[in-house]
Design brief:
The complex is a heterodimer of chains A (327) and B (225).
Chain A (H helix, E strand, L loop, with lengths): L4 E3 L4 H9 L4 E4 L5 H6 L7 E4 L8 E3 L5 E4 L4 H5 L2 H6 L1 H8 L4 H6 L2 H6 L5 H4 L41 H7 L3 E5 L5 E5 L22 E7 L6 E8 L7 E11 L4 E9 L6 E2 L1 H5 L8 H12 L10 H17 L3
Parallel strand pairs in A: 1-3, 2-3
Antiparallel strand pairs in A: 4-5, 5-8, 6-7, 6-8, 9-10, 10-11, 11-12
Chain B lengths: L1 H32 L25 E7 L2 E7 L5 H8 L18 E4 L2 E4 L12 E3 L12 H8 L9 H16 L18 H7 L10 H12 L3
Parallel strand pairs in B: 1-5
Antiparallel strand pairs in B: 1-2, 3-4, 3-5
Classes of the chains: A alpha+beta (327), B alpha+beta (225).
Chain lengths: 327, 225
């Protein structure tokens, strides 16, 4: 690890000030991703702002019936919160499908959202990666790329966003509260938090330098059955090859509304309004599910090793939608 | 006989020189990158003239480890794992992968299991830490330790401290009703089935593959007698 200075402020204001006062600063919360990357010298901050003691570790009910999740609420706490388990089971399920018991006890809400890709070329500092070092090239394009993106990738980057939690939050239309270095606050729809790589893959999100996530808002859950399906290389403790978060209101005979987000296939949790509309006001048949998959896969592009993700995504989506429409 | 003696002498001479070389090579990174506090008698540049970074300012941290208050002065880079092992001589906690993938470094912080390798010691100021050394009550083994011995829940033993600390934390999570990926009813009381144990312990790898015995030990320790 490269040397750094360390500060542990006790308020959001002081955290932002500490960040601004140091040119190569990073916030650290749980540290389970950042410290790993620092050991590998993929991240080399010269100053760490430990936000672990700034409060913001509560889950509060909002006036509209939704929940406001403090940025430091840990993944294990969030997954086991009775209100989350009851109203947003897709979020509990997604969290429980990710990482290990030890990591979930440490990982936080903001850190989970901002965790970086697990592309093996991003981790391998002997090979080029545009996300790690802008403009140097992408070894994954012609490399072993079975884990990589089939949707929304660019010639500069084919990495995928690894969070399960973010996929569930995407289907729930969560909003992210932030505070910027000038003290101004804003609310970012989660759809606009993560971005596609385009020609700037070094930027995972639309947050500005030093902008701190303070909370995630969940609007009241939409009616319908919530399902999270994850397919991975081993039964537990592995990142998704493909995952699906689905909420379907209706039954076999008629779907009133359906929404689904998929993970493991793009640089951000992926939603497709056209695919969702395929199921609107129609019987929940396998043909309809296939139609939704067709729409979602219309723009998909397979690389050398990840062509299997096209059929895996289709089958996982069909299975999740079937589960969500089974009484 | 003489030629043999000559051979061994020469061979040892080569080995001695090789070892000296290694000592120099190993010594420099220790100064340049290691988490050990800088030693005053070290010269500012290495014998090969390579630049040596400025010594890092250390910081104070205080936590409770196995019931005793510890005060340390640490390079901020020191992980909780390295603080325990290298600064407190609590080497029961093992360093496996050092990247949060194997679980060998699992300790309990304020009663909850975490990977000590992915946490800075400074982040734990004021925390209560329990390592494998702190589980037993004097000569009386913790029930989880006794169960691992009874069921032969290990072979080489390297992952065992992490397995046991993780299992102790995991049983508490089950007692508190926390669900897992394989729990059918999210809000219900989770049962300690083998499937639940395996899922909840997936963050602890055992390369000797003693899993059946580990599961049996945890099942016994977690089942009221």
């Amino acid at each position: 690890m490269k040397a750094f200075t360390y500060e542990r402020p006790s308020s959001v204001d002081d955290a932002v000030k500490s960040f601004v006062a140091h040119p190569l600063a990073r916030y650290v919360a749980g540290g389970t991703n950042l410290l790993d990357l620092m050991k590998l010298q993929i991240e080399t901050p010269t100053h760490l702002v430990d936000i672990g003691r700034i409060g913001l570790d509560r889950i509060d009910e909002m006036d509209d019936g939704g929940l406001r999740i403090g940025t430091l609420v840990r993944n294990s706490t969030l997954a086991a919160d009775p209100r989350v388990m009851r109203q947003y089971p897709v979020l509990s399920r997604a969290l429980l499908a990710g990482a290990s018991g030890q990591l979930r006890n440490k990982a936080t809400t903001c850190g989970n959202l901002l965790q970086r890709t697990r592309c093996s070329y991003f981790y391998d500092t002997t090979l080029p990666c545009n996300k790690r070092e802008p403009g140097i090239g992408c070894a994954a394009l012609e490399g072993h790329n079975r884990m990589h993106a089939i949707l929304g990738a660019s010639d500069a980057c084919i990495a995928v966003q690894p969070s399960d939690m973010a996929v569930a939050m995407r289907v729930l239309d969560a909003e992210v509260e932030t505070v910027a270095t000038d003290g101004s606050t804003r609310v970012v729809p989660i759809a606009d938090l993560h971005r596609l790589p385009e020609d700037r893959p070094e930027r995972d999100t639309t947050l500005r330098a030093g902008e701190l996530i303070t909370a995630v808002r969940l609007p009241p859950a939409p009616p319908g059955r919530q399902v999270y399906r994850k397919v991975r290389d081993r039964a537990s403790y592995a990142f998704a090859l493909v995952s699906v978060a689905a909420i379907v209101d209706g039954d076999r005979d008629n779907v009133a509304a359906a929404r689904f987000a998929v993970g493991g296939v793009a640089h951000k949790p992926w939603r497709d309004a056209r695919a969702e509309s395929q199921l609107q006001s129609a019987p929940a048949t396998d043909a309809a599910f296939n139609g939704a998959a067709d729409a979602m896969l219309a723009s998909a592009r397979a690389l050398r090793d990840n062509g299997f993700k096209l059929s895996l995504l289709r089958r996982t989506l069909r299975a999740a939608l079937a589960e969500a429409t089974t009484a | 006989m003489i030629s043999f003696k000559r051979y061994t002498t020469g061979h040892d001479g080569v080995r001695r020189n090789l070892l000296k070389g290694c000592a120099v090579l190993a010594g420099e990174p220790l100064v340049a990158f290691g988490s050990a506090p800088p030693r005053a008698e070290q010269p500012p540049t290495s014998s090969r003239g390579a630049p040596v970074p400025e010594p890092v300012a250390t910081m104070a941290v205080r936590f409770d480890v196995n019931g005793a208050t510890s005060r340390l002065q640490l390079d901020p880079r020191t992980t909780l794992l390295d603080a325990l092992r290298d600064h407190m001589e609590l080497t029961g906690t093992k360093k496996g992968c050092d990247h949060g993938q194997c679980g060998a470094c699992t300790v309990l912080v304020n009663g909850e299991r975490i990977n000590a390798c992915l946490s800075l010691a400074l982040m734990h100021d004021g925390d209560r830490i329990t390592t494998i050394e702190g589980l037993a009550a004097g000569e009386q083994l913790h029930p989880m330790q006794a169960a691992f011995i009874e069921h032969d829940g290990f072979q080489c033993g390297y992952c065992t401290s992490g397995q046991i600390c993780s299992a102790v934390g995991m049983l508490d999570e089950v007692r508190r009703g926390m669900p897992s990926h394989v729990t059918a009813d999210l809000g219900g009381k989770p049962a300690l089935t083998d499937e639940e144990i395996r899922e909840r312990m997936s963050g602890n790898l055992c390369r000797c593959s003693a899993y059946p015995n580990i599961v049996a030990a945890i099942r016994q320790a977690g089942t009221p007698s």
